[in-house]
Amino acid sequence: MRRVLRRRSTIAFFMCLPLILLIGGLVVYPAIYAIYLAMLNKKMTHFVGLGNFAFLLKRATFHLVIFQSCLFAVTSVTAKAVIGFLLAHLMHAIPGRHQRVWRGLLLIPWVVPLALSTLGWWWMFDPSYSAFNWLLAKFGIGAVPWLGSTGWARFCMILVNTWYGAPFFMIMYLAALKSVPEQLFEAASIDGAGALAKLRYVTLPMMRNIISITVLFSLIVTFADFTIVRILTDGGPRDTTHIFATYAFEIGIQSGDVPLGAAASLFMLPILAVASFFILRGVARRDREMAA
Amino acid sequence: MFPEEQTLSKIAISRRAALGAAAATAALPLVHIRSAAAAGRLSIGLWDHWVPAGNAAMRAVVGAWAEKNKVDVVIDFITSVGNKNLLTIAAEAQARTGHDIQAFPTWEVHNNQDNLEPVDDVVLPLMKQYGAINPVNEYLGKINGHWMAVPSSSGAQYKPSCARISLFKQAGLDVQAMYPARPDHTALADQWTWAKMLEIAPIAKQANLPFGLGLGQTTDSVDFVGALFRSYGAELVNAKGEVTVDTDAVKTALEYMKKLAQYLPPDVYSYDDASNNRALISGKSALIFNPPSAWAVAVRDNPSVGGDCWTFPNPTGPNGRFVPSNPYFWGVWNFARNKSAAKELITYLCQREQVETLCKAVSGYDIPPFLSMADFAVWAEVGPPTGTVYNYPIRPTHNATPSIAAFPAPAEIAVQIYNRATMTTMVAKLTQGGQSIPQVIAWAKDELEGFSR
Questions:
Q1: Distance between alpha carbon A170 and the CA centroid of its chain, in Å?
Q2: B416, closest residue in chain A (CA to CA)
Q3: Contacting residues of A for B270, CB less than 8 Å apart
Q4: Is residue A6 included in any domain, yes or no?
Q5: Do A234 and B425 touch (CB under 8 A)?
Q6: Is residue A41 part of a domain?
Q7: Which is nearest to B61 in space by CA: B337, B339, B351?
Q8: Which terminal CB of chain B, N or C, has fewer other CB atoms within 10 Å?
Q9: What CATH number has the domain bearing residue A234?
Q10: Domain total for chain A?
Q11: Helix-strand-coil percent breakdown of chain B, rounded to 5?
Q12: Does the structure show a pLDDT above 70 at B9?
């Protein structure tokens, strides 16, 4: 027994145990419980299998929710990735002390609590007293229904999510850029490569894993977003901005159908599982190639 | 001295620890009322009142009862901001533990009926004592012939018309003469119809004071459209649970809304429950449907607007005059540990004296569940102008009925119609989304059939 306890693996296990218990209690248990809830009838008295999922798939409003969730997540993540990539390169080009200042400034959106910053955005988009509309009026431009029309409301959601999440991409890409050996760029220069060729044949291949993992992480977080939509539009106008989490909250908590709400929120699971599978498979393959 | 106090006195407390504890205590909306010799413990989760004085008054009233009955009472004031009260209710129902008494907003009694203790023994004697109860309370609180929660005054509200006196006078309607601050029915009141409102709407728009009537997803919008639909006899689902959306009454209500929408501000589709208040308070709207909270803030922040407001029932339609009613309930969980004390406290809180004290403390915001309590002095006294909220509670002279959107559908369907804002979405699809009435009705039919699963 004493020998078992002295093993490095045993010590490592015990040192990890608090974290394992934490993850078990706060992640695994709620996830399993949510799956269990999603398979109960409305009164939670008997098991209905996949009935709630089948029911949701027949609803026109839920089709809209699926479309909007995908539109919101894919557009936001793409925008964040592109902006983060550009910012990281610009940041990388700034020398020394100034880079730290800019880096700190650009990280502010990511550091401010999301609920608070979204409220700030909401005030600027406010239907009646929008600061943006006040500015537009100064230039003789008519008021824009930022949150009152489908197109603008979706644009506002994506804009706020991009504003909040782009700094995360920037910092991850910046870290990746800093880890690319300078010699590779020098060798490419000697071979006559221009800026675009260096980007294509040196920077991107070296950053590909970080890009994949960052995109995956952001996709998960963006699909699960609740705060931005809840505060900005609450799913309106005409349900055209609802995403999985807000729709699940509305039917589960507000309308008292917890199993259906759980089923709606779990629709994210297969989408994210498929995305995770392909992205992580790509990462593993590249790791093997680099090791070989 | 209590044993705990003896122990505490022996513990050395550092200044930092004491400050930390004080700060933590101040941050929690939790009140511990300990009577001289505790004869049991009672934990209650009440609604954190919008009006700051409401919590203090409630604390004093509950404290007096606790002292008299030697019960150790702990009160949590739970905010409805961010639906924290709904989340607390859902969590306690799942965990089957929590407060003994819990405040339940509108639909939550139905949602939690299986976890609630029947309270016929509380409500029926109260009805004997005080007479008829608001029918919306009965619709929401009485399930299968049994009261599952006790209608409370705290947090209960109506959403009548709150109009600018001057604009309506300009449009030829003297709202103060129509609904005076005395128990009189006037002939003018019969002219306050949805059709009349439609006549005034363009005048208000021209005066840059368009009506602030939301067509969004939140309760103020749903309540306004719900009352209008009911005035036209437009039921989406009938009392038997049959989908009845494809009727002439629904079409007429939609046609009315199509006419009205052109005179509303373009941003009404993104209104939340504060947007209409802001429209009135900032002097940008001549009419909203809201409790007197908007007027009260206007008196504080924009006195010229506050002094120009008058509250009175909603317009009438072919089927009658309906005033949106959002009741609150006090329920006892069936897993509560002190049910008898819980019922005693609720009975005490529902007595006229306590209801009036609480109502006065919140300047008349709360609406008592018993129609006989519509005569509290507070509504006649507050101003400016004096008597402005005299007609906030429904009085016999109003010929009005309290109503909730989606009535008379069975509550398990109605709650979805209400929270999914089906009626306002129908109107928005028609007036903003460019769909025709048959298309809107077809969409609603599909949606409603889904609610009936």
A1: 14
A2: A255
A3: 127, 145-148, 153, 233, 236-237
A4: no
A5: no
A6: no
A7: B351
A8: N
A9: 1.10.3720.10
A10: 1
A11: 50, 15, 35
A12: no
